[in-house]
Design a protein that fits this description.
Strand order of the largest sheet: 2-1-3-4-5-6
Strand content: 5-15%
CATH class of the largest domain: Alpha Beta
Number of strands: 11
Distance between the termini: 10 Å
Order of helices and strands: EHEEHEEHEHHEHEHEHEEHHH
Number of helices: 11
Largest sheet: 6 strands, parallel
Shape: globular
CATH topology of the largest domain: Rossmann fold
CATH superfamily of the largest domain: CDP-glycerol glycerophosphotransferase, C-terminal domain
Radius of gyration: 20 Å
CATH architecture of the largest domain: 3-Layer(aba) Sandwich
Helix content: 25-40%
Structural class: alpha/beta
Number of domains: 2
Length: 320
């Protein structure tokens, strides 16, 4: 079978790569195309899989059309007003949310899965299993002190619009330089991994080697082997919970996108001036918020066992 994979930004390719590997191992052919490129229907594709909602709006795509989330953040608003045939739900939350949107807007697509897991986690799990070896390599490569490795994953910067309902959900209401300045660098080895779309100047002063802009294996390894993750509304916070990595949320609004009543509690919400103190407490007690991380892993990410891509590939093959 020839299957078209459609995506745009490089950082999202790691959602598709593990699925591509499984399908290729089963003897299928994958043709990758960009969201703004030329549709591949005439190339003999028998179905397509996309992971950004602009994909099927901007171009075609062989039917049946499958869709999976490009990210795992449930803190941001999203919709499914797409010309798709199947939505693949990675976990109970995404199944429930897709069902709500389907009923609300009268969509006709089918929802598959419901607890198959998030494919990007299949890439991260092996690194976590070799954490000590990989951390030793990172320390040597960057000449780090013995303190814990902390990685900041800010969501992308979006202009604040007055009276907008999205303020506090999609936006960063502070300069991330304040975050970096609030962490004691004598205690912690700090890295920053900005969003690929971030065009602010907030990270220009980060020492060379401590800012990870490229979306290669290096970024994934640093994420999976971090001692703690600092984030806001980024999907990195949920994925860290999926790997049971301690997460600290920066001050702001942390609720599920569809519910102003449901708080996101996968880690402590710290004021900027208290970040070092919060990190100290987290490092002294690794079980702090461990039950909450387990809850959000199950609810948002789904099973983390290295086989999400196998289950998703099977869903695609069974519905073509």
């Amino acid at each position: 079978m020839v299957i078209e994979f459609i995506y745009d930004l490089a950082q999202y390719s790691w959602v598709l790569k593990p699925i591509e590997r499984v399908l290729k191992n089963l003897g299928h052919t994958i043709i990758t195309s960009k969201t703004y490129g030329v549709p591949q229907e005439k190339s003999g594709c028998e179905c397509s899989l996309a992971l950004q909602n602009v994909a099927y709006h901007r171009k075609g795509g062989a039917r049946p059309r499958f869709f999976i989330n490009h990210g795992s953040s449930a803190s941001k608003g999203w919709d499914l007003k797409l010309p798709i045939d199947f939505f693949i739900a990675q976990s109970p939350y995404w199944f429930k949310r897709a069902q709500m949107l389907k009923e609300k807007h009268g969509h006709t697509f089918s929802i598959l899965g419901g607890n198959v897991g998030y494919p990007r986690m299949d890439v991260l799990v092996p690194y976590l299993a070799n954490k000590e070896t990989l951390q030793a390599q990172i320390r040597k490569a960057h000449n780090l002190h013995d303190g814990p490795i902390v990685v900041c994953f800010p969501t992308y910067k979006k202009a604040v619009v007055k009276n907008s309902s999205t303020v506090g959900r999609w936006t960063r209401l502070f300069d991330y330089r304040q975050v970096l300045a609030s962490i004691d660098s004598n205690k912690y080895n700090v890295f920053v991994a900005p969003h690929i779309m971030d065009t602010t100047k907030q990270f220009d002063a980060v020492p060379r080697g401590r800012i990870i802009r490229e979306h290669t294996e290096r970024r994934l390894i640093l994420f999976a082997t971090a001692d703690a993750i600092i984030s806001d509304t980024s999907g990195a916070a949920y994925e860290a919970a999926g790997l049971d990595i301690p997460v600290i949320l920066t001050e702001g609004i942390h609720k599920l996108a569809h519910s102003a009543q449901e708080d996101v509690t996968l880690g402590p919400v710290s004021k900027l001036q208290d970040l070092t103190k919060t990190l100290d407490q987290m490092m002294q007690d690794p079980t702090w918020f461990s039950k909450e991380r387990e809850y959000w892993k199950n609810y948002i990410i789904g099973p983390v066992d290295g086989h999400a891509s196998d289950r998703i590939a099977r869903l695609i093959l069974d519905n073509v």
